[in-house]
Amino acid sequence: MKILVLNCGSSSIKYQLFKMDDLQWEVMAKGGVEKVGLKGSFLKHEKASGEKVLLEGEILDHQIGIDYILGVLISEKHGCIKDLDEIDAVGHRVVHGGEMFNSSVFITDEVIKKMEECIELAPLHNPPNLKGIQAISTLLPDVPQVGVFDTAFHQTMPKHAFMYAIPQSLYKEYGIRRYGFHGTSHRYVSHRACELLDCDYNTQRIVSCHLGNGASIAAIKNGQSVDTSMGFTPIEGLMMGTRCGDLDVGAVTFIMEKEKIGTRSASILFNKHSGMLGVTNISSDMREIEEAYEKGDENARLGLEMYCYRIKKYIGSYAAAMGGIDILLFTGGIGENADLIRSKVCENLDFLGIKINESKNKNLRGQEMDISSSGSRVKVMVVPTNEELVIAQDTKEIVEQLANRKIQEP
After folding, report:
1. Active-site residue numbers?
2. Which string of DSSP letters, residue by residue, matches 114-171?
3. Which residues are catalytic (predicted)?
4. 336 labelled as ligand-binding?
């Protein structure tokens, strides 16, 4: 089965074409469209062989962008399939599923209506996700589509973990609660770690740290997410590249009053100009901050100390919530590649049974590895995430179930 996975952002479209067999899979091609609707738009395409091509063009909207993608997939020079009929299904990343979706779903008109109801919960993310679905409906009308939601994995959180201490009427009226994000990533790496360690996923207490420009931590107990650091929106929780993370609501209103700014400006301030960028005044890119730190920059030192301290606090709190921890995971662009961050986070966590092997940790970049020391009670793992594979796997499973159901119908 050949499955096209799409991740549509406001001005970008990432894609991968998978060939999925029962026991094996391969990426036939991958790439992305950038600057959709803007000047200088282009498509980057890479075949399984590593051959790369950059194609420039006027890409006014998501449908044109996806049409470009389909065109390059079947092109004689750069393609990997001969005809679009070879695409058996399309899987879409959808950021917010609210309380309506606790698992991946086959996309129907009714599902699209429910997804549209979630737009106010993710006004920046869900609309482009829906544009991708609508584009495929137009360009490949007979191809089944599946939606995989970032929030779905966290729908197992108990009510005492996802509720905020605000009037319940606000939850009932507007759905204001903790939803959590990066669920597809947390699901993949937690499963994968247990595969690598040859242990039962449904008996482990796992703390999964997805550290990238956006960052979140999940507490996974006996195969279910029981808490996570991101909340109603992705701004809550850890200090991130440009997001402030946890912040006193009183400080928010105080700043708005003193700076005489409204909600839109406040949102931009705390989402785009805070976090590591705001504290260091250097960059939101951890690599540049680490370079400054090595040169003795005090703002970079403060930023790194704050960043790692907050991760430590969440690890400790989730160990307390789960009654201990068996596996600590690092993933995401920073989690997979920043040995300095992993080292600082794990420093002085011996009381939890967390000890890492610094020689294994040093210079480890984007590889699956157990970096715990021989005396560590907790397995400390680096597991590169693969959200696209999860989307492809879910899509394959759902489409096959539907096909089997139709065969069995009298």
Report:
1. 150
2. HHHHTGGGSTTTHHHHHHHHHHHHHHSTTS-EEEEETTGGGGGS-HHHH--SS-HHHH
3. 150 (proton donor/acceptor)
4. yes
